[in-house]
Amino acid sequence: MINLIENEMLKLVRKKRFLVVTLVVLVIISIFTYAQYRTTQTAIQRSGTTDWRTILQQQIVDAQNRMSNSRSSNDMRQALKIRIAQEQYYLDHNINPNAPGAPTFMRTFGGQSVSLLLPLLIMVATSDIVSSEYSGGTIKMLLTRPVRRWKILLSKYIAMILSVSAIVFLVVAASYLIPGFIFGYDGWTMPVLSGFSVSSGDLNTSNVHLMPQWQYLIMEYGLVWFVCVVVGTLSFMVSVLIRSTAAGMGVMLASLISGAVLSNMVSSWESAKYLFMINLSLPNYLSGSAPPVDGMTLGFSIAVLAVWGFAGILVSFWVFLRRDVY
Fold it and tell me: Which chain regions cross the lipid bilayer (predicted)?
């Protein structure tokens, strides 16, 4: 089995997709770092001070102005209302939620990238792990080897999980090292508030508690890794079902982009909460952002993703073991 896994990993590396994914991650994080730097400088210029309390108060005023804008949708007003309540909570407890530092950037980037950017990178890296054997004509040679089919597919699945883990580790390392040149590398022990929840449109602070930022980051990137494994599993399933790599990538691309769009407009469509792409933003539960559909919780979203992932594994093995290859 180990030899099979090594062989599959070599195939993935030789496709040079990891090199492309690595370059994309480095470029995007550099752009995000510059954008964060410009945002910070603009906030300082507008408020005329570097005092974080004054800057945060100005952000609250800006959010209140956006809420009163007649062109803001109801969903936007609801999100702004929760954000204002959170920021006021930070002010009341004298905690800077945006203290400069690479760990703070990691926390922000992890929460924002898990809904679309990371799933897209995972899809690019794993969507042809089986279908390429058909398009390349190597599937017959692979199946004629004295190895059971389930072992062949299992080695590919394990290689997929290893590649997903490598991409998540790359994002963690890059989102710490690159912003550190500008913001510094301190902030691991900075206190962070967690435990916010949203119920019927109101922010519930009864379970809010402090934790060091390093602990928050472990929880956040653990959830990010879980989301990426589920997306990788579904890409793996599509790769088994659809022999064309381009068609498989198109299916996953459409699913992920539609999920990112739907998350902002399904508040009145309750059954949408069972779609996997609506449940990808697990770190938002840690920060206390409003869920796409009222009533969704962290446990519910993890359960939905686990069911989708388990179903993806079952379908992949069932189809691969029974399919005739001519």
Answer: 18-37, 157-178, 221-242, 249-269, 298-321
Q: 58: which 2 tokens? A: 């100005």
Residue 174, pLDDT score: 92
Closest CA to 167 of 243, 93, 229: 229
Q: Among 58-67, 264-273, 280-289, 290-299, whose mean pLDDT is lowest? A: 264-273
Give the start-end residues of each E strand in 35-121. Answer: none
> What confidence category does residue 288 fall into, taking pLDDT thresholds of 50, 70 and 90?
confident
What whole-number distance in Å separates Cα of residue 244 and Cα of residue 226?
27
CB 308 within 8 A of CB 300: no
Amino acid in the structure at residue 270: E
Per-residue pLDDT reduced to its tens digit, 118-174: 898 888 888 877 777 777 667 777 777 777 878 888 888 998 899 899 999 999 999
Percent of the chain with pLDDT over 90: 17
DSSP letters, 200-258, are TTEEE-TT-EEEEHHHHHHHHHHHHHHHHHHHHHHHHHHHHH-S-HHHHHHHHHHHHHH
The three state secondary structure string of 37-60 is: HHHHHHHHHHHCCCCHHHHHHHHH
CB atoms within 10 A of CB 25: 21
- Residue 120 sits at φ, ψ, to 5 deg, of -65, -40
Residue 27 φ then ψ, to 5°: -65, -45
Query: 3-class DSSP state for residue 136?
Result: coil
pLDDT, one tens digit per residue, over 11-51 is 777 777 778 888 999 999 999 888 888 887 787 777 667 77
Q: Report yes or no: 287 and 105 within 8 Å, Cβ to Cβ.
A: no
Q: Please give the pLDDT value at position 199.
A: 65
**In whole angstroms, how far apart are CA 55 and each of 79, 168, 182, 204?**
20, 33, 20, 24
Of 240, 211, 118, whose CA–CA distance to 168 is shortest?
118
Say if CB 214 and CB 189 are below 8 A apart: yes
Q: Is 16 exposed, middle or buried (0-12, 13-18, 19+ CB in 10 A)?
A: exposed
Residue 167 contacts residue 121 (beta carbons within 8 Å): yes
